[in-house]
Design a protein that fits this description.
Blueprint lengths: L1 E4 L10 E4 L2 H18 L2 H14 L2 H17 L4
Antiparallel strand pairs: 1-2
């Protein structure tokens, strides 16, 4: 298991997610983002808008995901 925060995953808070794989932790972050979107949380909405801009370039989004995956892989197992 490895732990990353919402902020480390492109979000806006320090809520921690723990998972065995990057795919699992990314899904947890996505679900958290949807909850924050529904609540209208301003800081998360700002982070989501920044991600939307990044998604305009498939190459930039791919690079961002690869960097986050490397960051996850480099974390020590708990």
């Amino acid at each position: 298991m490895k732990t990353m925060t919402c902020r480390q995953l492109g979000g806006a808070c320090d809520l921690e997610f723990s998972a065995a794989t990057f795919e699992e932790i990314a899904e947890m972050s996505k679900k958290h983002g949807m909850v924050m979107f529904q609540k209208g949380d301003a800081s998360h909405l700002k982070a989501m808008n920044e991600m939307q801009e990044l998604m305009q370039s498939p190459e930039a989004m791919k690079e961002w995901m690869e960097n986050k995956r490397r960051e996850f892989d480099a974390l020590p197992d708990e």
